[in-house]
User: Fold this.
Amino acid sequence: MKKLSVKTKYALILAAILAVLIGLQLLFNQVFMERFYLNRKLELVKELRSVTLEYIETCQNGENTEAQEMELRKSCEAAGVDVMIMQPDSYYGGVILFSNVSEQQGGAVRLINIMRGKQNQEALKIYAEGTDYRIYQTKDNFTGTEQIDCLGYVESDSTRAASSDIYYYVLTVAVAQIAETARFYNRYLIWIGLVTILIGAVTMYLVSGRLTKPIKQMTSISRKMADLDFSERYHGDGGDEIHALGVNMNEMATKLEAAIENLKTANARLAQDIAEKDEISRQRKELLANISHELKTPIAVIQGYAEGLKDGISEDPAMRDRYCTVIMDEAGKMNRMVRQLLSLDELESEGMTAARERFDLAEMLRGEAEAFMLRSQKEGISMKLEVPEHLPVESDDYLWEQVIQNYLSNAFQYVSPGGEIRIRGEAYGTDGVKISVYNSGDAIAEADMEKIWDKFYKADKSRTRAYGGSGIGLSVVQASMKNLGGSCSVENKKDGVEFSATLLHCLAV
Assistant:
């Protein structure tokens, strides 16, 4: 069987879609349109009833004008509803105050029957009703056609008993008009639909531009492929040659994209290796510069005081002792810095693994606090310890000592004169522990919060030199907690700063 051409396929598809849509619309019109049109007419009757009541109110108040009557007449014509308003009369049965139809016999009779208390018409269907009106479907006695009537009356509140102050009205819509409108629209839609289907199918068949659409798409794809952009793909269907060409282009684009991505990955890995080497070189230079800077001052001090002793700058034994003490202090600072550097290098080495043994963290905190007690008394610092009697953990006691010692050393460097240091240890969560060291003093600037963990970084360089700080202690804390699998943090508190360290899954039973 010979396959249909692309042009024929498009023409048949368009004709089928149009036929289905028009068929669905005819079906919906047949089922729902008459009901929808009827509901719309009922809404218009209700709206026009409100306008009619407003007109009657003006008549009761003696304010009726030609402009108001013209406004009501326009509303009746726009809604397609017949309106008649009457007032009872003892001689003629009733006086017509308003009507927008030339044939008034049917409406007048219905109103007169109401005014006389008679209602011979049977309501086929009631749509709405109240104490003074009813909207219902009935049959006209003169024409024999079904219609929708809204019959009602309005009486004055001041003279309710006087019949001359009662106004009756009727609003009429022919039901046949509603059904005829729906049938007319369906016939119109059938003819328009047939013409639309014919024109659409012929136009689709004749317009050859639709055939070139996939070719244009593949041209755009090939242009992007020439620029090494393989993100676009051919999206088509069918079994013709154009579709086969598009599928082959997609396969070629996929393979080329994979090859280019592999090349990019290799280049990125090479660039990353180069960047890492450059970063290692930069860190090495920065480390040497920082070490040189930190050692330069104590070496110069030692050299100066040693030369002074050699030259016999003073024969006073107390002065010589002072010189020796300064030399020993500066040598001790260099020794501590070297030991911290060695410890930090060991902690940051890849082969470093944390031990896991049982010990009492509360007892360790009490021991470290005791070691700093003499210094606190000498400097007039209040030191408080808040730990439970026992806090058994399974972890590396050496790394925890590094954390506690460096936190306490850092607290003494930055505590305010005559201030306070608080050490706290507690269980954290279900099976973790947390220690914190608080010192009163100045808060840490937000810009320094992340940098204080870097090697040789000092938030207050003037104070750390005076108190012997090297800027390595907090780096040792961070490396220790990383090896333990925990975390460390800092937080500004009221009138001070609090450092903490947390480790989960280590609390011994």
